[in-house]
């Protein structure tokens, strides 16, 4: 996981693999955990500003993301903040224009914006 | 890395000793009456564990002050040498000291005498004259022959250059625009290693690659095949997490220059997939073309291209295997048109392909200044976005970028993290750019790249890489044109004038440090196969380049097999019959049509060979058919036995429906389709594996195709493969794969590509 970006939960992401991903980033970023898991390099200066791990889910994946957040709050005892919001996503749609080619008709495409709600869980380091 | 010279010897020694001592605690109060109190024991050992960690740290720090230290694998170029002269001069003294103290033998270079010394001296002389010529900004033409002849030739050029001041280059780097109009261009030949560049030209970064890569010679180029280090996992990781890059200057570019828009439209109609209407974005020079090049209405090569409307010029970038053939065909067409000219820009335009989420970010760091507007601003916006998957294939960014050799630092292009308020603005800007589909092409730049005179202008006052790095030579040279577009493989291709490719490559290495994996030809194939995407030309056996590739592959397998002692050869005769060990498309075509032709006449129970009165074999069973097919094989048959399935073709349609009756005198090319394969259970698929429609262990009756590329797919954690099979299997769900020389069949799900 890139430390700059939230972990995105897709509809195809299995619950357990999301947990594993989060655990891995916690091990890497949380100084307390890092001391146990990677004693040879207890301090990464590049990650010193990180205080939490972000998990984000959009649309259909909102329930799954909240389950993950609640798992960390109740079972693991982390402080978890959940916030909601709206993001713009792009859809690739047909313009309606069709061009005849040597290999049959080719549909022309364009991007279109759509609003989608999301939920972000902030899992704070212990 | 190195400690300062002022550091006293005693301190250094003390540091080294300190690094080796590990302090320990003697008293152990947790062991009482033979019972160990674990929690107490651990608490008391905490001190020791901590000091052990600290000691490990100290050791590592102490080791980093030594000359011979262990570098990360990817940064290693060759093993540390015992020849002290190979170590950089600034470190030599300390290296000698370290070698003495550790008892290593010093090998000093043998003094050259006699003929060897004479040879070296003459070579030095050759380079001195070449340097004088270069300082005069005179173009150097290197001739063939012995060193003596070459020296006299260079001397003649030097005399001429001192008398006449015409035809001077505009830089001391020896950079010039090497093109030929309406004929194939000869490569630029270096002074020192000229002879070895004549048949197989060098890419701009040849020397850099030759030190770090396995090289191979093909299609008129010395090409990087694969890094010296193991990199199978590293490449996949890099392509998913940051970026991989490949110097693809061996891809040849040609420019069709048309006198007016109408002729240009005819050219596009003739050579591209658009034979009637041309999309307005392609005609306006806003989108790159990523599809087949058509010659005589047939797919000839998978190419990328760009149309520049101001000059009515069409740039086509081809794989080196196709270049000469397609250039000649296009030239033939051009000569029938009025005023159309074709430039061979193979040695005038170079390119780099970058893949991975950070590809555009790295490029933006080098190309963009602090204030970026227009198309450079778009590049900056795209570069901030971590994943450029949203950007459609064919998106073009044409802009003037800073000369990479004169840069002192990289621009700050922060990744848009997507969860802070400031960055969500940039994210929406990125999306806005995609929705608006506003122009990202600076037509001044694309024009400057496609016109020879303007490329020459870009070279003005250009410095060689090392000269530019020296202090005092930070003169601002002109901006250089660059064309960046997205290929159908998802890679970003950067096309620049030939001599700017080397500084760009070096800057990429410098600014990205170890978060950039440089790869060769083999890794490009690996990445495509892992993404379950057909790799051109290897997975396209129905094209000329692809078929030649497979023929060569079969021959090389055969040669390697023939070299083995018979005890080491696996018994191919039993498993493969007379089908060759590679992908034998020729046999497949004859085999499938032969079976269709004879069909019910073949009798499995008939176990003997039968001959007629003229001593010709009578085909009674499938074994006879195989023998007859094999007896017809001619070594120099260039006819391609397979063709890509086309639903509009009457023969192909009949073949798929099962109503096709082949003519015994002439079989048509077998219609084939490309498929991706995933094994349903355990098992490995290897290259050239055979694909069957039924699992039948005794015969090849149900042979339908071959696996062209196979590997262990690290994205899936399973093997996956790309194969080409007969078009009869269009609606099938499962096929059976058997590796060469094996008898087990692996069931695999197939999906059409």
TrEMBL record, chain A:
It holds the Pfam family Rpp20. It is found in: Nucleus. GO terms for cellular component: nucleolar ribonuclease P complex; ribonuclease MRP complex. One of its GO terms (biological process) is tRNA 5'-leader removal. The keyword Nucleotide-binding does not apply. One of its GO terms (molecular function) is ribonuclease P activity. This is Uncharacterized protein. It comes from Australozyma saopauloensis. Keywords: Nucleus, tRNA processing.
TrEMBL record, chain B:
Keywords: Nucleus, tRNA processing. Pfam families: POP1_N, POPLD. Residues 492-585 form the POPLD domain. GO terms for biological process: tRNA 5'-leader removal. GO terms for cellular component: nucleolar ribonuclease P complex; ribonuclease MRP complex. Its main location: nucleus. It comes from the Eukaryota. It is found in: Nucleus. InterPro entries: Pop1, Pop1_N, POPLD_dom. Residues 41-257 form the Pop1 N-terminal domain. SUPFAM superfamilies: Folate-binding domain. This is Uncharacterized protein.
């Amino acid at each position: 996981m890139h430390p700059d970006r939230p972990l995105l939960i897709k509809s195809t992401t299995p619950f357990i693999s999301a947990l594993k991903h989060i655990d891995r980033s916690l091990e890497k970023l949380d100084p307390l955990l890092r001391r146990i898991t990677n004693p040879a390099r207890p301090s990464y200066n590049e990650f010193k500003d990180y205080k939490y791990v972000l998990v984000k889910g959009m649309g259909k994946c909102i329930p799954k993301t909240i389950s993950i957040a609640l798992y960390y709050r109740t079972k693991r005892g982390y402080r978890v903040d959940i916030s909601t919001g709206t993001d713009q996503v792009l859809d690739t749609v047909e313009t309606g224009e069709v061009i005849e080619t040597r290999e049959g008709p080719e549909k022309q495409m364009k991007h279109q914006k759509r609003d989608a709600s999301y939920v972000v869980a902030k899992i704070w380091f212990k | 890395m190195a400690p300062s010279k002022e550091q006293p010897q005693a301190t250094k020694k003390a540091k080294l000793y300190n690094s080796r001592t590990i302090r320990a605690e003697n008293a152990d109060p947790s062991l009482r009456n033979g019972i160990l109190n674990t929690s107490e024991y651990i608490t008391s050992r905490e001190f020791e564990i901590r000091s052990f960690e600290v000691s490990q740290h100290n050791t590592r720090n102490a080791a980093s002050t030594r000359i011979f230290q262990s570098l990360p694998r990817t940064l290693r170029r060759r093993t540390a040498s015992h020849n002290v002269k190979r170590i950089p001069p600034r470190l030599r003294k300390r290296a000698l000291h370290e070698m003495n103290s550790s008892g290593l033998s010093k090998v000093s270079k043998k003094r050259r005498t006699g003929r060897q010394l004479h040879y070296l001296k003459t070579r030095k002389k050759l380079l001195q004259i070449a340097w004088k010529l270069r300082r005069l900004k005179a173009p150097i033409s290197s001739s063939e022959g012995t060193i003596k002849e070459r020296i006299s030739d260079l001397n003649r050029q030097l005399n001429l250059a001192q008398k006449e001041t015409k035809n001077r280059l505009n830089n001391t780097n020896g950079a010039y625009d090497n093109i030929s109009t309406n004929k194939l261009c000869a490569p630029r030949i270096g002074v020192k290693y000229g002879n070895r560049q004549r048949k197989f030209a060098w890419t701009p970064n040849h020397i850099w690659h030759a030190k770090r890569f396995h090289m191979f010679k093909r299609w008129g180029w010395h090409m990087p095949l694969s890094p010296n280090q193991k990199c199978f996992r590293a490449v996949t990781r890099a392509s998913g997490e940051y970026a991989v890059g490949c110097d693809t200057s061996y891809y040849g570019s040609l420019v069709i220059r048309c006198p007016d828009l109408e002729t240009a439209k005819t050219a596009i109609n003739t050579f591209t997939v658009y034979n009637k209407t041309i999309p307005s974005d392609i005609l306006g020079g806003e989108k790159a073309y990523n599809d087949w090049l058509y010659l005589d209405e047939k797919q000839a090569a998978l190419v990328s291209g760009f149309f520049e409307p101001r000059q009515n010029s069409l740039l086509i970038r081809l794989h080196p295997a196709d270049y000469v053939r397609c250039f000649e065909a296009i030239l033939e067409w051009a000569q029938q048109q009025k005023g159309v000219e074709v430039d061979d820009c193979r040695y005038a335009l170079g390119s780099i392909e970058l893949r991975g989420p950070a590809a555009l970010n790295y490029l933006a760091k080098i190309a963009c200044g602090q204030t970026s507007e227009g198309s450079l601003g778009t590049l900056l916006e795209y570069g901030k976005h971590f994943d450029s998957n949203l950007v459609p294939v064919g998106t073009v960014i044409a802009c003037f970028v800073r000369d990479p050799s004169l840069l002192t630092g990289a621009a700050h292009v922060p990744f848009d993290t997507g969860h802070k308020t400031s960055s969500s603005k940039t994210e929406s800007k990125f999306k806005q750019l995609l929705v608006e589909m506003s122009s990202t092409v600076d037509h001044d730049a694309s024009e400057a790249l496609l016109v020879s005179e303007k490329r020459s202008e870009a070279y003005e006052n250009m410095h060689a890489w090392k000269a530019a790095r020296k202090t005092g030579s930070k003169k601002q040279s002109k901006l250089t044109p660059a064309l960046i577009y997205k290929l159908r493989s998802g890679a970003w291709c950067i096309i620049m004038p030939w001599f700017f490719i080397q500084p760009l490559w070096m800057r990429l290495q410098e600014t990205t440090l170890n978060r950039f994996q440089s790869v060769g030809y083999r890794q490009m194939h690996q990445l495509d196969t892992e993404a379950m995407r057909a790799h051109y030309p290897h997975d396209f056996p129905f094209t000329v380049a692809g078929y030649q590739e497979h023929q060569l592959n079969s021959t090389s397998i055969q040669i390697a097999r023939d070299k083995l002692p018979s005890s080491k050869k696996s018994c191919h005769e039993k498993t493969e019959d007379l089908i060759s060990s590679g992908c034998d498309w020729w046999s497949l075509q004859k085999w499938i049509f032969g079976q269709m032709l004879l069909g019910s006449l073949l009798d499995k129970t008939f176990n003997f060979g039968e001959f007629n009165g003229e001593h010709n074999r009578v085909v009674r069973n499938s074994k006879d058919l195989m023998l007859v097919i094999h007896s017809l094989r001619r070594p120099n048959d260039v006819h391609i036995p397979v063709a890509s399935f086309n639903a509009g073709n009457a023969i192909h349609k009949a073949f798929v429906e099962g109503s096709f009756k082949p003519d015994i005198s002439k079989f048509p090319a077998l219609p084939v389709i490309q498929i991706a394969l995933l094994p349903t259970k355990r098992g490995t698929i290897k290259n050239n594996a055979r694909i069957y429609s039924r699992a039948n262990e005794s015969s090849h009756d149900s042979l339908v195709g071959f696996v062209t590329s196979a590997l262990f797919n690290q994205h899936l954690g399973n093997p996956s493969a790309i194969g080409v099979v007969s078009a009869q299997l269009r609606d099938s769900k499962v096929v059976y794969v058997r590796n060469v020389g094996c008898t087990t069949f692996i069931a695999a799900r197939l999906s059409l590509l």
